[in-house]
Amino acid sequence: MKVEGSLCSMKASTSCKLKFLIPWAIFAALTVVPFALIPPAEPLDMLPLQSEYDGCIDKSEGITYTMMDCNGLEQQRLDALLDEAYRKAMATLPPDEKKQLAISQIKWDEKIDISCQNDPSVKEFEGGSYAGVIYSICIQEETESRILELEYKYLSTSENFQ
After folding, report:
1. 110 burial via Cβ count (<10 Å: 0-12, 13-18, 19+)
2. How many Cα neighbours within 13 Å face the side chain of 41?
3. What is the pTM for the complete model shown?
4. d(Cα 22, Cα 37) in Å, to the nearest integer?
5. For the purposes of burial, counting CB atoms within 10 Å of the CB of 88, is it exposed (0-12), middle (13-18) or buried (19 or more)?
6. Is the Cα dihedral 106, 107, 108, 113 positive or negative?
7. 9 — phi, psi (to 5°)?
8. DSSP 3-state helix, strand, coil percentages of the chain (rounded to 5)?
9. Do the beta carbons of residue 89 and residue 155 sit within 8 Å?
10. Cα separation of 84 and 157, whole Å?
11. CA–CA separation, 11 vs 37, rounded Å?
12. pLDDT bracket for residue 55 (50, 70, 90)
């Protein structure tokens, strides 16, 4: 089964899979890992449910609409965590900084859609059904990064760095 616009089939060779996984791994190492090394003051318990998402994707057997269902459920979970992090961050700030955070959140929300639409991995699959899967993964990664950013900037305390 070939994915539209792809040089690799769903049961692709290892070298073909690596072609797509290496850029994502580099992105994660440069964006997510540095934030993950600094524990938040009150962890939002993001990681335990990741295995449920992984299990859902494994069970999808590469069927695009099933993968999209998994991605939708994962995005709902991430959105709830983002809302919680934002709410906790707002609770720690004085009024003038709350306004700045609210503006920052609106700008972030506007940016991620454009950023993911223009992501090279999404562009590579443009026109194919798999583009939606890659796009939703991009949104998930951006959401995870924003959660970690909020935790780091607003919910971490100086004791976490000693």
Report:
1. exposed
2. 14
3. 0.65
4. 21
5. middle
6. positive
7. -85, 170
8. 75, 0, 25
9. yes
10. 18
11. 35
12. confident
